[in-house]
Amino acid sequence: MEDIMTITPLGSGQEVGRSCHLLTFRGTTIMLDCGIHPGYDGIAGLPFFDRVDPEQVDVLLVTHFHLDHAASLPYFTERTKFKGRIFMTHPTKAVIRLLLGDYLRLMTMKKGAGGELSQDDDVLYTEAELQSCVDKIELIDYHQTIDLNLPSGLKFHALNAGHVLGAAMFFIEIGGRSVLYTGDYSMEEDRHLMAAELPRYHTSPDVLIVESTYGVQVHASRAEREARFTGTIERIVSGGGRCLIPVFALGRAQELLLILDEYWKDHPHLQSIPIYYASKMASRALRVYQTYANMMNARIRSQMDLGNPFSFSHIRNLKSIDVNTFDDRGPSVVFASPGMLQSGVSRQLFDRWASDPKNGCLIAGYAVEHTLAKEIMSQPKEVVTMEGRRQPLNCLVDYVSFSAHVDFVQNRDFITSVNPTNIILVHGAKEEMGRLKGALMLQYNKLPENKRPTIAMPPNEVEVKLIFTRRRSAKVMGKLAETPADDNDDQVEESKAKAVVEPREGDAVRGILVTQQNSSKIVAPEDLSTYTPLRVGSVSSRLHVPFVGKIETLRMFLGEMFRDIEETREDNETDVDGADDEGVVTFSIGSQVKVIAGKTKGVATVEWDCSPVGDVIADSLVALIMHAQSSAASIRLTGRPCRHRSKKAREGDLENQATAEEHLRAVHQALSDQFLSVEATYEAMKGTFEVKLDANDNASEESNGLVCTATVEFENILDGTAKVAVECEDEKLAANVRGCVQNVVAASAPIAMD
Question: What is the pTM of this model?
Answer without folding.
Answer: 0.67
